[in-house]
Design goal:
It contains 20 helices and 16 strands. The chain is mainly α. A two-stranded antiparallel ribbon has the order 1-7. It has a two-stranded antiparallel sheet with strand order 2-14. Strands 3-4 form a two-stranded antiparallel sheet.
Amino acid sequence: MKNLNIYITILAVVFASCSDLEEVPTRGLSPEGYFKTAADVESMILGTYGLMASSNYYGNGLTTPLQIMSDMVDLGFDYSNYSHFNSFIHTPTNTYPQALWNTSYQIIATANSAINGVNQLSGVLTEDKANELLAESRFVRAFTYYHLVRLFGDIPYIASVDFGDPALIKKSTVSDVYTEIVNDLEFAFDHLNMQHQGGVKSRPSKGTAATVLASVHMTRANWDEAYTRSKWVIDNAGALGYALENDFQDLWRSDIQASSPEYIFSIDFAGNKNGSGNPVTFENDQTVGAFNGIDGGANPYGGWSMLVPSLKVFDSWDSNDYRKAVSMTDVLELKSTGVISDYSQFLIPRPHASKLTRFSGVRKGNTAGWRSDMDYVVFRYAEVLLIAAEAANELDNTPEAVGYLNQVRERARRGGTINFAGNGYGTYGASASPADESTTISKLDFRNVVLEERRIELAFEFKRWYDIVRRDLGNEAFGVNGLEPQPNFNKSVHYLIPLPQEELDKSPNLEPQNPGYTF
C-alpha cells in the first residue's frame, strides 16, 4: 500500500480553505457537504496513516526520541536538538516535542473528522459499514493517544471536530485518557474484521485491536486484561493469520515484509516522495534507518552514524544468539576498496544497529544521506507472546508464562540466512542459544527474564523506552553499571518529556508544565 501519500495531498487540497493544519489542535476538518459516501470517510481514514508516516511522526520525529532515550541507542555524533534527549537535557523549547505534538493532534483531528463523517452519513450507510468505519477511526485515535499519554502525561483529550476556543482547552488526567483509549479500542475490537482491511497490515484488524489493548493493559499493570487480550490473539492466531516468521531476518527484508505472518500492525512508507516547502520536506519515508546506518559505507549500509549503540550493548549480547547478527552489524564493505572492514575502521568505531538498514528497500539519495521505504513493524506476534508471558507470570502462572517465552527463543535458535552480495555474511545454523527457560524459575526471577527478553527480541523497535518507564528501570539503565550511563538522568523528571512551551504560551490552561521542566 505505497500510495498513502496521495491522501495527504487530498487532505491539503480539500481543507486548505477551512483549516490550518499547522494549528494544533486542528478544528473544523469536516466541511459540510464533503462526505457523500463511505469512500469519502475511508479517504479521511487513509489520510491518518499518511500522517503517521510523516517525518514528524514515525518517519523520525517520534521514533528517534524513543530510540535515543532508551539504553539501547547512544549518539554517534550530536545532531540538532535530538542530542538533548540522549543526555537528558531537553527543555520545553526543544523543537521535536512541538513537532510531535502538532502531528499527533493532526492525526487525531483527522480521525475525529472521519468519525464525524460517519455521523453525517447516518441513514446512508448500513449499520455494519458505519461501525466498521467508526472502528478503524477510533483505533487510530486510541493508538495516537497511547503514544501521547505515555510521553507527555496529562494531555488534552479531544474527541470532536468542534471543541470550542483552542485557548481554553484543558488537560485530562492520565487515568481519564486511558479510559478513553480503552473504550475506543474495545469498540474497534468489537467491530473490526478478523482480517486486515485490504489485506494490508498497516490497517487494523480485530487482532490488532486486541494486541494494542493487551499492550495498554500491560502498561497500566492490569494483568488480568493484558493476559486475556494477548491470550485471545494467541488462541485465534490461525484465524487471524498470525505466526512467528521462520527466519528472524525476514522480518526486516523490505521486499517480503508486507507478507510476513508475524506482522500485526505496521507503518507503511511510500518511499522517496518529496513534500513541499523550502527546504523540501520528505513525507512518507523513514530516516531512522539512515540515522542507524554506517556513515561512509557502500550500499546497503550507507547512513549517517547518528544513532549508534554503546559498545556495551554489543559486547554483552550473546554472540551465539542469531538475533544479534540480525539486529547489529560489526562489518562494512568499504567504498574505496570493496574490502570487508571491522568496526574499528568505522567513522564511529562501534557496531551499528542493522534491522532497518541491511535490506532497506528503495532509497532516495540526497546531500544528507538516504531515506527508505522500509516499513516499520509496530506490533508483531512475538510481542504478543511476550505480553502473555509477562502477564501470566504476574498472575502467578509462571510455568505457562515460560512456555510463551520459550516459543520466542525457539525461533531464535533456528538461525537463518543473512545474505547479500559482498557483505561477508552467510547462513547461520541452529544454535543452543538462547536456551529454553526452566519452568521452575521463580516469579521474581522470571519478571527480570521476560523484560530482558523484550530488550533483545524487540531491540531498536522503539519499545525499550516505554519498558524502562513502566517498570521503573531508569536508575538501573542509566546508572554507572548500565548499558548507557547518563549522569543527568532523573526519573522524577525524565519519565515524561516536557509539554511544548509554545503550546503553554497559546493555551495557559495547559499549565502546569511537567515537573522539572519549568524555567
